[in-house]
Design a protein that fits this description.
It comes from Hirsutella minnesotensis 3608. The chain has 6 helices and no strands. The protein is mostly helical and 190 residues long.
């Protein structure tokens, strides 16, 4: 259960920061209390009733809201078009990583019995690929790091310089990959 609590302990502060960006202290307090009440309700329901659907839906909604809000704030906070594109690409990469991790986590929950049987039949080293719970941690860790970094960057003031290269691996590499893929598509059109 603590594994699942950490999911909401990541998304709730990010939501608070994004929902109260450029707002007055009263709204920030009210939003914080509302998010705290929602977090408590979801976690108590999940832990006491061993209820999965509310927990999974709340997390999925939080990831969606974070991604949506980040992509709406980036144009306001990043005036340079080149830097804006890089930050947006990194945000999208993080959002997709988070979303893929979430999908893998759901598949692991729903297919656990079948995956365990399959894992035993294929054996090592191929069983490694069916450890979806482990892959969930990898993808959400990358997505979570990017979310925290991007949210902190865009809500700490106007972004003038490219922050992407100062982020931890694999973010700069992913940004170059995504930018390269975008540039290749443009070259194909011309």
């Amino acid at each position: 259960m603590s594994d699942e609590l950490s999911m909401h302990l990541l998304t709730t502060p990010l939501l608070h920061r994004l929902l109260t960006f450029n707002s007055d202290p009263r709204r920030a307090r009210t939003t914080g209390l509302a998010l705290l009440a929602l977090l408590a309700a979801v976690m108590v329901t999940h832990m006491v009733l061993d209820e999965f659907l509310l927990h999974a839906s709340a997390f999925g909604l939080a990831v969606y809201l974070i991604g949506n809000r980040v992509l709406r704030i980036i144009p306001q906070q990043v005036p340079d078009p080149g830097v804006r594109k890089k930050v947006r690409n990194v945000a999208i990469f993080g959002y997709l990583s988070f979303g893929f991790g979430y999908l893998v986590w759901l598949m692991d929950d729903w297919l656990c019995r079948h995956l365990t049987t399959f894992r035993h039949s294929v054996g090592v080293p191929f069983a490694f690929f069916t450890e979806l719970h482990g892959w969930w941690h990898v993808f959400t860790a990358v997505g979570g790091y990017i979310a925290v970094s991007v949210v902190d960057t865009i809500t700490s003031g106007e972004v003038r310089d490219d922050p992407v290269e100062s982020l931890a691996w694999p973010v700069p590499m992913a940004a170059r990959f995504v930018s390269g893929a975008t540039a290749a598509k443009k070259d194909e059109k011309n």
